[in-house]
Amino acid sequence: MTNFLRSLTLLLAVTLSGCGYNTLQSTDEQIKASWAEVLNQYQRRADLVPNLVNVVKGFAAQEKDVLLGVTNARSKVGSIQATPELINDPEAFAKFQSVQGELTSALSRLLVVAENYPQLKSDANFRELQAQLEGTENRITVARNRYIKAVQEYNITVRSFPSNLTAMIFGFKVKPSFAVENEKAISVAPKVDFSKP
């Protein structure tokens, strides 16, 4: 009987080692860590917005629509509870991605407007904030890429045999990832017209 129990234990150990449970756990933790970094960088960007708006407002007060657009976009970003559970809800994740995209667009419009104000462009505070924003955008890109890779590894494990059976038993589901916001728009080459002065 003792040999039978040892054999059974050994068989269970071998079976469970190939079930993918530990891989699911470690990749899920990697997603959480990557997601925390994404949130950290988005928060850093959101924290820069009020200072940037105030500096621009001092030089370009007549650009109220653009300034209001940035302020409203930042407000929408702040209204979403970016909890770790957000990555388990594709609909909430899509909404989060959408409001972050709105803020990105609003900030782009603000920086385009700034080009029309040479005094603003030469202001040391504006240049410093612009440099911080550019650095933060780069950090966001890196953090998103790490998150995308972590989700890809996890989703492959969740969908591959035999770990997919373990995933079903323990309730591991495919997680959403970042996607291109407007695939049709980026598939069309921009039109360049050099005839205008």
Structure, briefly:
The chain has 197 residues and is mostly helical.
Can you give a write-up of this model?
The protein is mostly helical. It has a domain at 28-148: LemA-like domain (de novo design (two linked rop proteins)). It has eight helices and no strands. The protein has helices at 2-17, 21-59, 64-79, 90-114, 118-122, 124-159, 163-170, 183-187. Helix 2 packs antiparallel against helix 3 (64-79). The longest helix is centred in the N-terminal third of the chain and has 39 residues, at 21-59. Residues 182-197 have low confidence and may be disordered.
What's the arrangement of secondary structure elements?
Layout: H1 2-17, H2 21-59, H3 64-79, H4 90-114, H5 118-122, H6 124-159, H7 163-170, H8 183-187
Helix pairs in contact: 2-3, 2-4, 2-6, 3-4
- How helix-rich are the residues, as a percent range? over 70%
What is the radius of gyration? 24 Å
Number of E strands: 0
If you average the pLDDT, what whole number results?
83
How do the SSEs run, as a string of H and E? HHHHHHHH
CATH class call of one domain = Mainly Alpha
Query: How many helical stretches?
Result: 8
Shape: elongated
Distance between the termini: 92 Å
Strand content: under 5%
Strand-pairing-aware structural class: mainly alpha
The CATH superfamily of one domain bears the name LemA-like domain
Question: Main β-sheet, in a few words?
Answer: none
**Model regions low in confidence, pLDDT < 50 over at least 5 residues:** 182-197
CATH architecture assignment name of one domain: Up-down Bundle
CATH topology tier name of one domain: de novo design (two linked rop proteins)
Oligomer: single chain
